[in-house]
Amino acid sequence: MPPFPTTLLLLLPTLLATTTSSSAAAAPPPPPQPKPPCRFAPLHTQSSILANPQTLTNALLHWEARFAQPGIGYNAANGLTYDGTLLDPLTGLAAPSGAGRHNFSAASKEALHVMVLARAVAGSADAAQFVAPDAPPGEAGKVAEELLRAKLESYLKFNATFPGFGGFLPWFNNTFEAVEPTGDWVGRVPGLDNGELLWAVYGAVEALQRRGEEELAGGWQGWLDYAKGNAARVFYRGGLGGVCAVATLDQGLAPDAEGQRYECEGTGLLDDPYEGELMTWWLYFFGGLEEKEKEALWTRKREKLVSVEYEENGVGPITVQKGFWFSSHEQWKILEMPYFDVPIVKRIFTNAERVRTCNSKALGIPGMYASVNNVTDSSGEIIGYISNAGVPSISFQPEQELDVITPYSVFPTVLVEGKRGRAVGLAWWWNMVLGKKMQNPYGSTESERVDGTAVSSFVSWDSKVTTVAALLGGVSDLVKRKMMKDGIYREFIKVTKREHERVFTRLQGEDVALCLPEARVPDTGLEDYSACA
Ligand SMILES: *[C@@H]1O[C@H](CO)[C@@H](O)[C@H](O)[C@H]1NC(C)=O
Ligand SMILES: *[C@@H]1O[C@H](CO)[C@@H](O)[C@H](O)[C@H]1NC(C)=O
Ligand SMILES: *[C@@H]1O[C@H](CO)[C@@H](O)[C@H](O)[C@H]1NC(C)=O
Ligand SMILES: *[C@@H]1O[C@H](CO)[C@@H](O)[C@H](O)[C@H]1NC(C)=O
Q1: 375 C-alpha to center of ligand 4: Å?
Q2: How far, in Å, CA of 518 to CA of 44, rounded?
Q3: What is the per-residue pLDDT across 270-293, written as a single tens digit (0 to 9) for each?
């Protein structure tokens, strides 16, 4: 006999859960509404968004959903993501042949897909708008489940074909139903992207279990358990407390086969206090490491967790965590784990968004910065990838390229707790997509030049679904519930608190309000896409 009645044990997670609107399973489906036009941004104003963020949210989800479709955002044959797709620079349409498609992807894009699917499984009406816009009300959970089933099958098949990856995913070629590592990832696997995927799946397992989908939940749990068993073997390699940024391996040999060798590639270690930390947590909890090694995971990272004051352009001082570039991408981990349950982390995070929004306002920039694809050239090709975009004065890498802004830079602002964060984040998103060509038949466009002379005629998971996942509240509440069941939640809080409180004592600038955009992207004569005019 268990010490408690089984029904109580089953109820416990629900009782412990913090209820958020995005996860309210019982919310009735919204009444049918007239469909917003593709070019809906000009129909809104900053004050209409601030007064009623949900109207813009609905329109955003309705159109971003056109990206997460077979042949555009994912491969119908296997349920796996495509990185993104080039658009015709005049019409804004993707080539039906797939000619401009990035027929490759990575665990990070999978993480975004899994997060929104988990939210749909958990019953979110907003997620349903994104995941299954054409399904009858109430069917989105089923649609999401089918995609999760296809994905799991594909991951297992990949593992069977390339056992050396230990269940983890490299960048993969998704041209055919059976995927393989892309040419530049043969025998190599990245830690950061896989950390993002693992916790997204962890949240999805919780959502599936709550829905009573035991079999599918069990299948995914099996994949997670396999990744637990291999995490240290593959990634815990750089000496005491070291985690490989990229591990090298023989992809044809099973992890325990004779001759298999896992090594860190070069000297690059995953020791950042940003999104790479998701892999650190996986190793910490599930890597089977000794106590001394577990502690070393955190001491190895300490040098990069730094407190810094932003004070320029008449704003500040505001205390923030020093960024690598201070790109919004660096805040990804907040989508996935319950960091906000540690008050000091929530306060530092909120300060970061005070800085991000007020820095752009003070400099007269019509948007905010994050690592993103550069604009496309006259032949329709992406010019390059701009990693080094953020806020230079409060980053380790102050050499930056600040000529391009991207709608997804708002996702951390959207996550700021309370209604204000979402409303201000959406106001910035709207301000950017007001720019010519910044809306297309698949929602928002990748990026645009601050001077309004060019955009990136491209759409991708990174530049869209980070914002969508943030609007859905991420999966940190699902992850939290499962962490409690697994008995690791308290430890997460304890370590997170300890590491931050040793660096951050007094925070300045907590009275500063989030800033709203004032500048607009100049109209230099670009024409909106004809398929979305
Ligand atoms: C992507 O794959 C499809 C086949 O599914 C092919 O038609 C298309 O040309 C490929 N795109 C690129 C850019 O290689
Ligand atoms: C995928 O594999 C096919 C067949 O080898 C190759 O032609 C294509 O260029 C590859 N695509 C990518 C994105 O790696
Ligand atoms: C992955 O492949 C290995 C080697 O074939 C196998 O032993 C293992 O069970 C597979 N993992 C999963 C989760 O199926
Ligand atoms: C981005 O494109 C601009 C031209 O629009 C170019 O000057 C700049 O060097 C490019 N940067 C990268 C990283 O591609």
Answers
A1: 8
A2: 15
A3: 999 999 999 999 999 999 999 999
